[in-house]
Amino acid sequence: MTVRSFSRLAAILLLSPLLPDVPAAHTQPTVAAQQPVTLRIATLAPRGSAWDRAFRAWSNTLRTQTGGRLELQFFPGGSQGDERDYIRKMRAGQLDGAAITTTGLGQVVRPVLVLALPGLFSDYAVIDRVRETLDADFQAQFEAAGFRLLGWGDVGRARFFSRRPIQRPEDFRAVRPWAWREDVIFTEALAVIGANGQRLGVNEVLPALQTGRVDAFPASAYAAVALQWFNHVTHVTQQSDSIIVGATILKKERYDALPADLRAALDETARRAHGALARAIRQADDRAYQTLVSRGLTPVDLTPHRAAWQDVARQVRERLAGRLYERALLARVEQLARAGS
């Protein structure tokens, strides 16, 4: 498979009309006496991706619905740094919000990382139900930390991509996997396995793949395409035992400073935008995986070694209990996951 054909694949997946604009429910007249408000929100999502299109549609809807009084200015593609930079810049007042994964969310509210644990979620319906059950608790924790959680999102099913097949956990010892600097869960999994990861920021991964410093990474299929990482691997796992979760958060003081009607409009459009985005990303991710396989990536079946993977997942969950989340929360999430599977 040539680089040109891979680039064509990326263009097809990124530019296809997966996500319609979120329709405005109603339009309010512009209040001339009030200065328009722009909320600055950063994201790693590449320009032109389904995430980027969803965010722009959300901003357009919000601007229309509020008569131009409130809009969202998104900074895509990691132009504002990595997710740890977003948290720092929000606290410093340089950004108002961020659309981030659990890696970034966990820097604000550690227990939210329970949603990213391996071995619990392989079905979207299950994680939706668990998130809905825990939503009020997490909302309160983000509020206490000084942030407003505007809506949950997804990045897709977590898979392992590599230049040689990864069938068993110990196969990670023979590769150079990328480990996101702030991703304590995958880093812990590598520690359980006895492997070492290359600790890099997201924007450093592509150059590392190009030079061979990294030859394996965890990601969803759609993210691998959107970030152009798929060009540098030959294998991808068929199965996924976790779903990469994300959310959009806003500094609470910026949210609280908005007039009541603008807060209501922001909440309403956020709910609809994140619902539309979740549907689009799930479709795009499933299609991206099938397309990558059909165009040359070799699928790796983990089923023969399922027990070994489950044992690693169990050890990771237990070792992080008491450090990232209370054991009672882990037990509750495990029970909810079993009940829904």
Distance between the termini: 38 Å
Basic shape:
globular
**CATH topology type of the largest domain:** D-Maltodextrin-Binding Protein, domain 2
Radius of gyration: 20 Å
Examine the secondary-structure arrangement and name the CATH architecture of the largest domain.
3-Layer(aba) Sandwich
Strand content: 15-25%
CATH class of the largest domain: Alpha Beta
Secondary structure: helix percent: 40-55%
Order of strands across the main sheet: 2-1-3-10-4
The quaternary structure here is single chain
Give the overall average pLDDT.
91
Q: What class, by secondary structure content?
A: alpha/beta
Low-confidence regions: 1-33
User: Count of DSSP E strands?
Assistant: 11
Largest sheet: 5 strands, mixed
Instruction: Supply the number of helical segments.
Output: 12
Number of domains: 2
Description of the structure:
This protein has 341 residues and is of the alpha/beta class. The chain folds into two domains: 36-155 and 243-287, D-Maltodextrin-Binding Protein, domain 2 (3-Layer(aba) Sandwich); 159-241 and 295-329, 3-Layer(aba) Sandwich (D-Maltodextrin-Binding Protein, domain 2). The protein has helices at 3-15, 50-65, 83-92, 102-105, 124-144, 184-193, 205-211, 221-226, 252-257, 260-294, 306-320, 327-340; strands at residues 37-43, 70-75, 97-101, 147-157, 159-162, 178-180, 198-200, 216-219, 235-237, 243-251, 298-300. The strands form three sheets. The chain has a five-stranded mixed beta sheet. Strands 8-5-9-11 form a four-stranded mixed beta sheet. A two-stranded parallel sheet has the order 6-7. The longest helix is centred in the last third of the chain and has 35 residues, at 260-294.
